[in-house]
Amino acid sequence: MIDTKIAKSHRHLVFYTFLMALALVSFSFLLQGNIGLNLADEGFLWYGTIQTADGKIPILDFRSKDPGRYYWTAGWSLIFGQGITDLRLSVALFQVIGLTLGLLAARRVITNWWILGLLGLLLLACMHPWWKLFDSCVAMAAVYMAIYLIELQIFHRYFYPGVFVGLAAFFGRNHGLYIFLAFFSLIFFIWFRQKQGNLFKLYILWLLGIVVGYIPMLFMMIFIPGMFETYLFGNVLRHFKNGFTADSLPLPISWPWTIDYIQLDLLAKAEYFFYSLFSLLLPIFYISTITLLVLSRSGDLRRHSLLIASSFVGIFYMHHAFDRADLPHLAHSIHPFLLGFMALLYTSFLRNNKFLKISLAILIFASTVFAVVIPSNPYIEKLRFKDTFIPYNITGDQLWLPKDLAAYIETIKQLVAKHVTPDESLFIAPHSPGLYPILQRRAPVHNTYMLIPTTEDKQKKIIKDLKKHKVNWVILSDFALDGRDDLRFRHTHPLVWQYLMTYFEPIDTQQLPSSEQFLRRKIPL
Fold this sequence. Notes:
Elements: H1 2-32, H2 41-53, H3 68-80, H4 84-106, H5 113-125, H6 133-151, H7 159-171, H8 173-194, H9 199-213, H10 215-223, H11 227-242, H12 266-295, H13 305-323, H14 327-333, H15 335-345, H16 348-351, H17 354-376, H18 378-384, E1 389-394, E2 397-402, H19 403-419, E3 426-429, H20 435-439, H21 456-468, E4 473-477, H22 489-492, H23 494-503, E5 504-506, E6 516-521
Helix pairs in contact: 1-4, 1-5, 2-3, 3-4, 4-5, 4-6, 6-7, 6-8, 6-13, 7-8, 7-9, 8-13, 10-11, 12-13, 12-17, 13-14, 13-15, 14-17, 15-17, 21-23
């Protein structure tokens, strides 16, 4: 009877937490779901979603991240549609799940619903850019599953965290690696502290769960011809060769003392300072916390389950934050830290010191707002630069876009409408895959997002595809990404550049940015 009441109470708790997450995400979507457009990363997801919904296979038929996110968004597109707002709505639904699990994790230390709501608002505000919400959602879900592993010390419970690792890898192999390492370390830590069960059997059960969770990817590699070779040689081995996040071009870590504050206004100074402060806070927090947990003699792991889970998950997610040390990657990785810091405020040595607890909470809240929320929140950006935003229609959805972006898209649409017939192929390179769905075109090449230097064989394949699809028109950019001349298209894809410069000529380029050209084949195919 008591167990039944406990189970019913737990179901109510989950339901009310879900409603809170749903309300917060709905508020966020209504507030800023129609602001801005990113032709690069957002366009990459948008194009991949449309292709997946049309029956194409991610990775195999077009360059993509791991398939899970595309099947999620493509599945919802069958209900909502294939517009940009429809895509954002499908990601928002995934956001509800991630935020719910993050709040359920936080419930281990927060019983007050108002405080939980404030934390939920902070977690939500840090979940940007929206097309990368899969990353922050999976990170929060990993913290919740780690708590599950800590609190329920039953043999068969090790299976389900393994399933989660496999599913996480289906959405992103980097997440699979981070969470694999986190749970591998956590299982050993639990066994070391409690000396219960056979460690080898626990790992076997956990590994079995990973295989089960990864079945969708295994199924694709076994039953879809060419998928195994493309995934292994075109993705996994390339990541190990160039660094596990090879597509994430490295940026140096910004330490507080390395920033030139002289040219910045007061708000920008605060933004840069607090952002750089996290470069120090994250490693200090995780390393010191895990060290204390390992050295501690307390056997009650349940009491500190949120702190333990957040620390073991977060320390591996630091790679994601620092591999390309910029604001978006910090935003993807900060949620385990925020949950762990909240747990720290409720530990025994702070629980009775109300002044210190409130002071630290305010410090982290303010730091997060200035470092992560203000600089790139779409609604705040629109408020700060309201005179530069105008309404603009994108495939039937009205968005608020910066004037220069709206003008650029309009120019491209007019050029294509004037010169390119509907049955002709159009090649867009290298950083604007979002133009394909805007123009309602399909890319003639496998790779629609050409960020990094490419081998000669792959460049020859691009040229072969351009000839195969009789491409007579090209929108070409030679922009120096990150201000690096070596990342211009002419240097990352020299053979393709040479081919285009030889067989194509520029036309009607006066209205385009200086780094872009609209090219026509000299002798049409």
